[in-house]
Design the sequence.
C-alpha cells in the first residue's frame, strides 16, 4: 500500500544493524523509547529480539530487522482491526478530547463508507462546543451524506435519539455520532457517554456498535493515559490515531495496543478527505523500521 510513507522515521540513521552486540541493543532500546513505544514495551521487545538473534544465530542486518518487525507486529495483534457494521443500522460512537481531530475523522470515515456503498447518517452529538455542528455539517456536505443536528446546547442524548429514529426510517446503514470533547478527568462528562450508550441499547438493541477513541499521535504517552481512562468508562472497541503525518513518532500505536488490548482501526495521515486509512500492522512496522 505505501500509505505510511508519510510517517517520520524514528530510528537513529547511523544504527548499524549488522552488529547486534550489547551496544546495538542498548541503542535500539533507546530508539524505541524515543519513538514513544514506552519503557516497558521497549525493554520487552529488545529482550525478545536478543533471544531471537541468539537462538536463530542471526548476523545480517536485514535478518535482525525482519525479526524485530515480527516481534512488533505480534505486539499489535490484540484484536480485529475491521470496523463491525454488519447490521442496519450500525452505530459508531466517536469519542475523545477536543483538538484531536474527532469531527474531521468522522467526515473522512463517512466519505470512505459512502464510497463503499453504505448509506451514512451523521449525528451532531457535540452540542457544547461552539460551531461543532456547523463543522460537522461542512463535512457531511463534502462527503455527500445526511446529518441530524439540533441547536447549540441541546441535550446530546436527544440529538442521538433523533438520529437513531431517522436512521431506522431512512434505511441507513451506518450512524456516525460525534460527541463532546470530554476531558478525561471530568466524571460528569464521562457519565454523559454512559447515557448515550444506554440510548443506543434501548433504541437499537440488535445493532452492531463500535466505540472508537480518537487520539492525537503527537501527544505521545499522554495519549496512552487518555486511552486508559476512556477505556475504563466507555468500553472502547478501537482507536483512531490521527496526525501520523510526519510530526508523530508513531510508536505510541504499539504502546496503546499492547497495554490496553484495544486494536488501532484507523490512522489519519493528513488533512485530505481521503487521508483516513484502515490500520495495517505489517505496513506500519515496515514504515517504522
Sequence:
Amino acid at each position: 500500500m505505501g500509505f505510511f510513507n508519510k510517517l517520520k522515521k524514528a530510528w537513529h540513521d547511523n544504527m548499524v544493524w549488522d552488529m547486534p552486540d550489547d551496544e546495538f541493543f542498548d541503542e535500539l532500546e533507546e530508539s524505541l523509547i524515543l519513538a514513544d513505544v514506552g519503557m516497558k514495551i521497549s525493554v520487552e521487545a529488545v529482550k525478545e529480539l536478543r533471544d531471537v538473534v541468539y537462538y536463530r544465530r542471526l548476523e545480517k542486518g536485514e535478518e535482525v530487522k525482519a525479526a524485530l518487525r515480527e516481534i512488533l507486529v505480534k505486539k499489535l495483534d490484540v484484536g480485529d482491526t475491521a470496523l463491525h457494521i454488519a447490521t442496519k443500522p450500525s452505530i459508531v460512537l466517536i469519542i475523545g478530547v477536543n483538538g484531536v481531530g474527532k469531527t474531521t475523522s468522522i467526515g473522512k470515515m463517512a466519505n470512505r463508507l459512502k464510497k463503499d456503498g453504505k448509506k451514512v447518517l451523521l449525528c451532531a452529538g457535540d452540542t457544547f462546543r461552539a460551531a461543532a455542528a456547523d463543522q460537522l455539517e461542512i463535512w457531511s456536505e463534502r462527503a455527500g451524506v445526511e446529518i441530524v443536528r439540533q441547536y447549540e446546547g441541546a441535550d446530546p442524548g436527544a440529538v442521538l435519539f433523533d438520529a437513531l429514529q431517522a436512521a431506522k426510517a431512512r434505511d441507513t446503514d451506518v450512524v456516525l455520532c460525534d460527541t463532546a470533547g470530554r476531558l478525561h478527568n471530568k466524571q460528569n462528562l464521562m457519565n454523559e457517554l454512559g447515557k448515550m450508550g444506554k440510548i443506543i441499547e434501548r433504541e437499537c438493541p440488535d445493532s452492531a456498535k463500535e466505540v472508537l477513541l480518537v487520539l492525537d499521535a503527537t501527544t505521545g504517552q499522554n495519549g496512552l493515559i487518555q486511552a486508559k481512562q476512556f477505556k475504563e468508562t466507555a468500553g472502547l472497541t478501537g482507536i483512531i490515531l490521527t496526525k501520523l503525518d510526519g510530526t508523530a513518532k508513531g510508536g505510541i500505536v504499539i504502546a496503546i495496543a499492547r497495554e490496553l488490548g484495544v486494536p488501532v482501526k484507523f490512522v489519519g495521515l493528513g488533512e485530505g478527505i481521503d487521508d483516513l486509512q484502515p490500520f495495517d500492522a505489517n505496513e506500519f512496522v515496515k514504515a517504522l523500521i
